[in-house]
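Running co-folding for guanosine-5'-diphosphate.
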Amino acid sequence: MQAPSVGGVMLPRGNGQTVRLSRGASLTDFAEKINANPASLVGVMMNLGEMVTATQSVSDETLKLLADEMNFVLEIVSPEEEDRELLESFSIEFGEDEGGEEMLVSRPPVVTVMGHVDHGKTRLLDAIRKTNVVAGEAGGITQHIGAYQVATEVNGEERAITFIDTPGHEAFTAMRARGAKSTDIAILVVAANDGVMPQTIEALNHAKAADVPIVVAVNKIDVEGADPTKVRGQLTEFGLVAEEYGGDTMFVDISARQGQNIEQLLEAVVLTADASLDLRANPEQDAQGIAIEAHLDKGRGAVATVLVQRGTLRVGDTMVAGDAYGRVRAMLDDKGENVEEATPSTPVLVLGLTNVPGAGDNFLVVDEDRTARQIAEKRAARERNAAFAKRTRRVSLEDLDQVLKAGLVQDLNIIIKGDASGSVEALESSLLQLDVGEEVDIRVLHRGVGAVTESDIDLAMGSDAIVIGFNVRAAGRAAQMAEREGVDVRYYSVIYQAIEEIEAALKGMLKPEYEEVELGTAEIREVFRSSKLGNIAGVLIRSGEVKRNTKARLLRDGKVIAENLNIEGLRRFKDDVTEIREGFEGGINLGNFNDIKIDDVIATYEMREKPRG
Ligand code: GDP
């Protein structure tokens, strides 16, 4: 095989050498790695039938194609790995406790509540929060910061448990998809009157996939017809066998509404943690953890709830969270009180970040402001590249005309803005999970916390996207701009509603399939010539009915002579009519088409939309 050459320029041959490129790299990035001229790589791609510019981010497949062509082995670096390397370049290691065993101190379990909709997740989270109101604190407003910590007594010892306050596995999954492990234990809520439902199983599978032990809360036992035993039986099929039946899963019958057995549930969480997990962390190092919720506050700027996973976070620390950074100006706990420090498994609201991190972004404390800024900036640049890569439409020359003709490529581009990063991510991951068939792709071009801005509308205009505002509105002139430019901006405050609507819109967006349905045939018995209208066919309707303004073709001796004709005029005797049925005579005018003869047949048809199966 010859080395590819473009315009006489020989390209480097990889000889099986490895090139490492990050996801969403451009041809220029590639060229830099192998000391080639970017333009020559553009040329190679053109020979391969794809038009790409040198600086545009391209897909994994394109990079692979190019690498193969030049005999390089391509290694695409995942965002997580890239981030690890970025931190390593600052001699920072994320995710491991510093020091040896002796540095580790036990920490509270972090719990997520999951289960089918309406089975009582929200109610349970509220009930748990209430059981823990310490005397004297009653009347104090507990703040929703995305997580809270409660204490419970187990075997005479006070034990803390941290709850992630966004029910549902969507948020859990979104975080996990970003490589964040936020949860130690999952409480699976199953309503005893309803039993195991689809999302129960979904939640269960997510927990299993994440290798997270499950405690089952059989809820609504106060409801008539509640059958907690049946729930146990049903879950056995999914590998969750209750302790009382010889299994190792703890089931607790509760009523979230009546606050019944909440303490027992908390105890089950602690016991399950003790039995199957070794929850310890080093509290003495620089803090690390994840952001679980963040939003922009009018008065306070970016506020983020972070969960400390190791180390101790202190006011005055310099931190990076995702692509946000800053000095911790103040910290508030879940009761809205100022705190000076937060130890492992403690959630705190942090003030002082430059912008809003995403749910599931990791955070870490670093020694110098400069380091924090550099890490944040590198991450932001990477995000931008990745977003751009998603935006690039990949249509190869090979199938471009077919694709256009057939309308096969149809994407729904979406921009999501919301009040908090948790809800934005939950919405995004749910949308991306929508199953709408193969012909349509959903792409989230951009997502963020805050109002819908003019720049969002700009992006939407440029890429035919729709904008979703979740608990936010358009700011400033964005609304007028959207209206003027015809950008569809939709507002929601319930995730399910948003998803349902998008799903419906997508189904409507699928190109309808049409089929031809024959309406009737008419035999030409006579041809009349009219100076005004041209030739008129005197016909007998042989089958079905002939309607005005429908499509027709002309047959002569069984052969099609003309297609795509129109029944422009239809008459019975002297009257214009809209239709003539089988067995009747009449006159047909085919508009400009005059080539008709006696014995020709006019067959009429219409295109009808095929219902989708
Ligand atoms: P989620 O969708 O899982 O968060 O469910 P919610 O917490 O919103 O609860 C759904 C409905 O069930 C609400 O009307 C609750 O008041 C009700 N509910 C929740 N827990 C109980 C319970 O223990 N007993 C009864 N009777 N109703 C409950």
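Result summary
The chain has five domains: 5-77, 108-279, 288-385, 400-510, 514-609.
The first strand starts at residue 5 and ends at 6.
Job closed.
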